[in-house]
Amino acid sequence: MSQDREPRPRRLRNIAELAKLAGVSAGTVSRALADKSLVNRETRERIQALAREHGFRPNQMASRLRTGQTGVVGVVIPLGHEQKQHISDPFFMTLLGQLADALIDRGYDLMLSRALPVDNAEWLERIVDSGMLDGVLLIGQSDQFHNIESVAARYRPLVVWGTHREGQQHCVVGTDSFAGGRLAAQHLIARGCRRIAFFGDTRGLEIERRLAGARAAAEESGTGTRIDGFATHLSAEEMVSQIAADLDRMDPATDAIFAASDLIAMATLRQLHERGRKVPKDMALVGFDDLPMTEQTVPKLTTIHQDIAGGARAMVASLLARIAGEDTPSTIMVPRLVVRESA
């Protein structure tokens, strides 16, 4: 025997219908749904309950038109000096995942893009002037420091992962790369290494500072340690062959390698293994980033830790403050040496 089901509440189409049902004005409904304290709590809760019961959801597009906000943040990876680098790079993916979680938790959607400045010198101007975004997060400065500075002078909701220079305009969140490079070299020198190769393309500002920090440590040590730079690229198509060529060109007396990223360090570890070179017995190896996979290599990778998760949260917090009209200073995080098995 079939039982009669209670009819479902009629679905409401707009705020006017909900206002009529609740016996209040449309303005009161709008404020209650936005959880504004101008409407007393009892009325707010009653209107919100009616909205849920009748399946009413405010038109987000109309709301965004009223507030002048889109609810979307652009996450952009500028590839000025590493044009063949992929978004699938493990560092990008780690930081991007953290940024996405932080933005979604705050009610924002994100629009991801990879910018190739060589194809469009005004790439950042077009992004910030598109009208589609409430703000922009840049993952890295590449070789675009002056371009970013120019845009930041007029566009405030812009936060960048990267390196801070004294007196700069744009807001940066990032690790002190100079200090990180110094830590890596100090560790290798303390192990007795005196001929160190640096693998990394110094056209990127962060990478340049890592090499500068390493060279400062070598000079400060008074040991006569020499650090040779090799412009190793991060693009997947070039990195393996580049590292092989770098290993061939290295001085035979080289006893350590400081890689500008964990990705370069792991590829180097593979190349050393294929050549029968044991790490760390024949060659000490230090990376930079402390990505999760560095504990899975054989041997486990000694590296410089940067707080990617904390940095992502700081980037989003700074951006939302800037969207609200506040100013925010740069956030410079302190690196930390993580000693494992490779050095």
UniProtKB/TrEMBL annotation:
Q: Which SUPFAM superfamilies match?
A: lambda repressor-like DNA-binding domains (SSF47413), Periplasmic binding protein-like I (SSF53822)
Which top-level group of life is the source organism from?
Bacteria
GO MF annotation terms? DNA-binding transcription factor activity; transcription cis-regulatory region binding
* CDD domains per the UniProt record, alphabetical: HTH_LacI
Q: Which Gene3D superfamilies match?
A: 3.40.50.2300, lambda repressor-like DNA-binding domains (1.10.260.40)
HTH lacI-type domain location is 13-67
Q: Name one Pfam family in it.
A: LacI
- Keyword Transcription regulation listed? The answer is yes
Q: Which UniProt keywords apply?
A: DNA-binding, Transcription, Transcription regulation
Keyword Transcription regulation carried by entry: yes
Q: What is this protein called?
A: LacI family DNA-binding transcriptional regulator
